[in-house]
Amino acid sequence: MELSDYLPIVVFLAAGLVVGLGILALSKVGRTKQNQVKGLPYESGILATTPVRQRFSIDFYLTAMLFIVFDIELAFIYPVAMVLRDAGATALISLLSFMFTVVVALVWVWRKGALEWR
Amino acid sequence: MNVVPALPLMIVAGGACVALLASAGPGGRVRRDGPFWAGAATLIAAAVMSLVLWGDRQEALGGGYRADRFSMLLNLVFLAAAFCALLFSVREPAGVDRRGEYISLLLTSTAGMMLVAGAGDLIALFLGIEILSVALYVLCALEVWRERSLEAGLKYLIVGAVGSSFFLYGLAFLFGASGSVKLSVIGENLSVASFTDEPLLLVAMALIVTGLAFKASAVPFHMWTPDVYEGAPTPITAFMATATKVAALAAFLRIFGGALTDLVDTWQVAIGVVAAASVIVGNVGALVQRNFKRLLAYSSIAQAGYLLIGVAAGTLQGAESVLYYLIAYTAMTLAAFAVIIIREREVEDGEMVDALAGYGRARPVVGVVATVAMLSLAGFPPLSGFIGKFLLFGSAAEQGLWWLAVIGAVGSVVSVAYYLRVLRVMWFGTPAHGGEPRKLLTIPAPVLITAVTAAVAVVGFGLGASLLMDVCRDAAAALLAA
Amino acid sequence: MGERITFAIAAAVALGSAVGVVTLKNPFRAAVSLIGTLLAVAVMFLLLAAPFVAAIQVIVYAGAIVVLFLFVIAYLGERPGRFEHDPMARYEVVGWIAVIALGVQGFIALANSRLAGIFDDPKATGDIGSPRAIGEAFTDPFVVSFEATSLVLLVAALGAVLLAKRAVLGEGGR
Known about the structure:
heterotrimer; C: 174 residues; mainly alpha; 0% strand
């Protein structure tokens, strides 16, 4: 692939940047009236009753960590899946044994209740 | 694709999965006893398989793993250390509480070490080091209710991650300079072209030495060792002090003794300086320790120094003495840690040297085990520790590295002071409150048997030295085999 | 020429964001600054003709791992900025010296290297970075590394659950 093939991505990023910066710039243009309602974190909806900066539960971390583990598993399976038809049985066996190990982790995590939200 | 040569590795990895599944399985019995028996069976099966595969090099699975005499001999060392750790952990808090996970992590770590010893390319080598380290980070912190244990896990994680990144950085440079990740091809490429003044290669070697020195706890990358050894559960410390050091030295030998052997003039001095510094710092640091675990940690830094002296020699004789001393070192360190494990179960402060006051008279068997271990670590003939040091220093002297041999010899003379202090306290000391040593409980049979076996091995390796040396010579020769 | 300009921009962004990660006082901002580095590295993977690795870099690193960092920061909660007497502060100089030394060392090594592709335009290699090429590498020469990765993932999941779940228990006693 030539580098120029990635031009659409650059255009997309540039468009995103223009929109974002444009909104920021437009907010500085003209008169602005401040009032209390506008200053709230959410202009509409439920008012925050507790401090916003609370400690999160460790479950967030746990879920994110397990997500990464299985995310990386996918990243490894995908390329092998691309060549599975050509590479034949050995590739399938190595893929299955790879997945077996990770599934063992999944079974254990599940049985230990680490996927439950408390 | 040839699977058979990788079987020991696959057995251990599979055993880790089985132990884990057993711990999540239904039924109390499977959960309680399943992991232990799965772990024991796995280790024995893998050891038998390693013996069966003893012979010339066989490449497995596209060359990523190589079964030769070198990797099979080290497999046996790793498996023996893991087996001892398994037996030490019987009724140990961390081992009881989460048996399956504990044993599974132990087996995974062992699998990583076996991968290091037999890796055919740099990627597998790095992955092996990562697997063994990550499993050990968790094992160190497993007694979460003890702050010390958490601290040990965290320190080991941070320092270990720094070490791993240096190592990986160095491997990337080595790949860049030599054009291949395969260890055998690197050796060929470097022997054909003259690379001695290629700066990338120098950088690669410096970074690899740094990374591996972290793992082997060699000076100046040793600072984590006393804290981590002290904080981790003692059976894990015993496993770390022996098997991890063997794995790090295996990586040293595979890279420097094997692939980069033609560049010996370039790396010899660097490794020699690290070795000398380790001997000095380790022995001086150990002199003032009152905690037995910390004392052994400093002693293990010094031992890493002795071992690196053999690596620095850069000859077949050097590699062979390193292998011999690794085996002897594993046996005597396991015996020494067994004493701590036994005492730790009886009294709160069992890891202090003073807690052993008069213990030798109260329990002669444990006393003899400790005596054998300490005398061998200090290097008294005819024990295996003496023979190993003699060979290591001899191989260095033969290459004209007299300064290294002298530093090593002086270091071992200094070490006699602290090793014998432990024995003096043990045999002639009186407990703080006078009379008998406090609380003598029955020692669990597996722990005592392991301790005695390790001590017998220390003596046996010394008496059967010539036999073991032949084995080590064959294993070292495999390093250079095409 | 286009490659060189792209590389220069990506390298500048990577270095600038990385400096931000270590110097920004607010951990949230530092973590977000890391995204800049990771995205710039993804661009470099594209330059190396490794589109699959670039995509993974964006999905796994800039996506999942930064989110994980943010969760950890959120778990630790609001912290007082700096300790009055940070015991590590006096080692900061040593850290910077080490960083500069590593940088100088790398620069000298690369400047004196005789490797192809540093001062001249590198020759194109075969296809090494497409998903198909990576898949072929996984199934033949590097199958051991492929399988070993699954062990790393197993240990990672195990460790995260063991230690994090213990932390939950630990907060309630024991």
